[in-house]
Every structure is written in C-alpha cells, then in structure tokens.
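Box 3.1. Reading complex inputs
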Amino acid sequence: MFNLVKMNFYRMFHQKSFYVCLAVTALIGWFMVFLVWMTPMMEEKAREARELAAQEGQKSATGEFQAGFFVGISGGTEGDPNEEMPVLEEFNVSDFTYQFCYSGFNVILLSVGVSLIVNSESKRGYIKNIGGQIRPRGMFIAAKLPVILFEVAAMYAAAVLSLALFGRIYYNKYTLGDVAGVGKILLLQILLGVAFGALVMLLCTIARNAAAGILLGVAVNMTPILYGFLSKLAVAYLGAPEGFNVSMYTLEYYLMSAVEVPDTARAVTVGLVYLLLATGLGWFIMEKRDIV
Amino acid sequence: MDYLLSTENLTKQYKNKKAVDSVNIHVRQGDIYGLIGRNGAGKTTLMKMISGLAASSSGSFTLFGEEGGAAGRIMNRVGTLIEEPGIYGDMSAYGNLHAKCIALGVRGRDTERKLLEIVGLADTGKKPVGKFSMGMRQRLGIALALVGDPDLVILDEPINGLDPQGIAEVRAAIERLNKERRITFIISSHILGELSKFASRYGIIHNGALLQELSGEELSQRCSRKILLTTSDTPAASTVLEKAGIRKYRVTGKNTVEIYEGFEQTAEINAAFVAGGVPINGIAVVNQELEDYYLELTGGTGNV
C-alpha cells in the first residue's frame, strides 16, 4: 500500500497536468484580483460613455460594460446605472479566499485536476503492468487518496498564494484579514475537496474515463436549480418539513458555500460519509472488475 | 509431473460467447511456451486470466503449486506485457521502470538501468516515451514485465511492430533470460515463424479452445522438413533405416514412414530400400511451415 502511494506521488510529480492545473488555479487567482481592481476603471469608462451618449442624444450602452466584471467583492450590478461603484480601498486576502471558495472555480479545478491524475493509470494502460501483481486490487483506489489530498491542498495553496501575491501587486493597502477564520474554512474545504476527489475517482473508475469526473465538476455548478426543485417536490408531496433543503445533504453545497455553513460538524460529517462511500464503492468495483 | 502453471478447464464467458473455453495448458519450469492463435482466438483473455488481470468464469489454475486465492497472492512472481505496453508518454523509459519498481518495492541499485540494457534501451536517456517508436515501446513493455525478477513472464505479442533487428534482439534477450535466470516465458504471437525459433513448447488455441499442446520437438517433427516414404512394408523399411544408421524417423501410418534426417542422402536411402527388398511406392522430401501446420489444424486460411 505504502509503495503504491509512493508510486502515485512519483507519477504525479512527473505528470504535466498536475503543474498545469496548479498554474491555471494561480491564473484564476490573478484573474479574480485583476477583475476587481479593474472594475472601478471600467465603471468610470462606462460613466463617461453614458455622459457622452446623453450629450449626443444617443441611447446608453451601460449593460455592455457592466456584464461579467463582478466577482462579488465590489457588490451587485443591479440598480441605478448612474450609481458609483464602491472602490475597493484595501485588499483583504481572506475575503478573496472566501470568494474563491464561493466561485465554483474550485469545484471545476478539482474535478479536472483529480480526474487527470487518478485516471492516467487506466488511460495509459499502465495498470496492466502492475494490476495482476498488486493484491488486493482495491488498494489502487485507497492509495490514491493521499495524492488527492496533496493535490487539493496544493490547489488551494496555489489559489491563496496567487491572490495574496497579486493583491500585493495591484493594491497599495493590503491586509491578510481573518487568518484563523480563513484557515479553518480552508481545512474544511480541503476535507470536502478530498471527498469530492474520491467521488470523481469513483466516476472515473466506473466509466474508465476522465471525462466522467470532469463532467461532474461542471454538473455540480448547476445542481442548485435541481436541488431547489427537488426540495419543493419533497415538501409538497413527501411531507418534508417546510424549509427542507436537499442541498444540506450534498457534498457540493458545503464545498461551494463552506464560508456560510452554520453547522461545521454537519459539513464534516457529509464530507466523511461521501469520502468513505466513494472509496468503498471504488474499492469494491476495482476488486470485482477485470482490468482492460 | 509438476508444472509451474497448469490450467484446468479455464473458461471465460462474456454473455453468450465463450472467449476461452475449458482450456488446459501445462507449462513447465524453464519453458518458453508459445501460444499460437488467430486474432480473437482467446490468447489475450487466457493470458489475462493467468496473470490475474481478469477473473475466470469457471475452471481454475495452479501457479507455482498454489491454487485459487493462494495463487493470486503470489502473482508478484509473474511479470506481464498484455496487448500494447502501458506507459506514461511524458516520462522517460527510466521513469516508467522506476514507477513500477516503487510500486513493487524493488530496491536494487541500478535495476532500471540493467533492465534497459537487457532490452537495448540504455541510451534513451531522458527522452519521453511518447516519442519512442513502436518497437522501442514494445521493448520497454518487456522491460516493465521483467521488473521484480519474476519467475514467470507472460508476453502478449511482444514482437509486434518490431523491425527484423528488433525481433532478433528481443528473441536473444528472451533466450538469454530463459537460460541464465531460468525465467519461464509464455509468449503469444501470430508471427509463427519467429515463435518457432525459440519456443520450446506450444499451445494452439482456436475459437477459445485449445486444439493441441505439443513440445518443440513434436512440432518440428510435424512441421519441419521430412522425407515422406510410402511403402506396403513399414517393418522392413524400419529395419533398413536402422541398418543405415538413421534414427530420427517415425512410422506415422500403415503405409507411411516419416524420416527427419539424411535429406541429402535420399538416393542412397532409396538404394538401401531396393537392396533390402522393401517395396517403395513413393519417396519425397516434404517441407511444411508452422503456419501451414496451424492452418491445416484449424482448417482455415484466415489471419493467423
């Protein structure tokens, strides 16, 4: 088992996709900082355009400038188009880290990164070289968990470091913020990330394909609509109590809104349950199925 | 007799189709066992089962004297190359071997370098395996199968895609490993001419069933060059052959004798028969390649 874990680490450190995923994570960190930093300038340009248009008696082009440039730090985009956007005076690393956890990028990055790492053995056929010699074969699944843990931690580290670095570059005023609070959230995020990684690994194992895991990452960003609908159905037809929310029992809810989770214990429990179930099922499938 | 590997009615069934049907093969320590069959005959499935990559639907096999679950636990003594070699394209040949060494806990110094030397890839350095030719990949696959000093190595089409020199190198490496380290090989190939150069025992598989299992000697007797004698008095013919000092012959039918030596002396042999009063109806030198024998046995002319 320990040898397999070592092999997985050796392989991951020699795999380009690992570094590419970290680089993309860092790039997203930069992008988030850059957008917030640029928003007031864009708003200024939009205001000038509106004024010019008003002077020339033309229609305003407000919407075109506002679309897609808000990551949440600067506030909403609705309301009076002539209202001044609040300018971020001080860069707070903790606030931006929370935003990264909210953004949904984390889930997509996790699904892509983990899928590429855990599936490469099957995709390249390398598993045929060792699949017969390693018993029990389910160890192939369990031995990937430490690698997933490392990758999840590395991706969050890359995001936080990138946010901190580019915040330092773009802003004069700079603070780390609530380090203890964000540290606790990050630990929870890492646990949930590993559980999500185990789920991705399970899908990749079942489908023998990395695409299944990546698809999961994209799909979970759309689940709130589905869960809202299911919750309403449960209340209306199954006698669930008013305010029942299916999301409270799903992994991605906590993964994408860990900042607001009132009950950390429940989040940890959900994470552990998903982790154990996905690993156990993956182990079982690996044991029972032929290696192709 | 004790076999290193023997299967008993080993079967693999996919829905309604039996890919391997009640196969019984017997491999002795030190054999180079050639598994012959067309594409889709069941060679790969059989190899997967005995290398622990696939479960059998029924039947069993004994490996190193152990059966069932116990055999599964000593699979670390079996090296495999099944179908195409499974390799990481962005890693070097050394890296690919090192990864397997780590997984199996092989800690010998220079193990990877020695294996690369055996398969003739020692000078590939840090070149990514993705840029290797088909033949080089195949040789790396063989090196991967040799990690951990296995006692039994299962190679599925190991000379696929190799040029003549590559084939000769791989053949030499297999023969050397077989002689020096007493490694037993099970090798499948559809290049029967090549296989016949170094295999010591053969299993012929067709439509999932084992048609015949025979030693290299038996196969060469059936396939190779021979003098086919047709006579109505085979005992008298045998006596004449003994007197002439010819020992490699076999009475194969009521009226036929096959002689496996003295191909340059057919005139003298014929004269000896005449002098001995043996009635000769026909005498001819016959050549049969392994491919011909295989096709004759399987009753087809398709892709071997």
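In summary: Chain A touches chain B at residues 3-4, 6-7, 10-11, 14-16, 120, 124-135, 288, 290-291 (CB under 8 Å).
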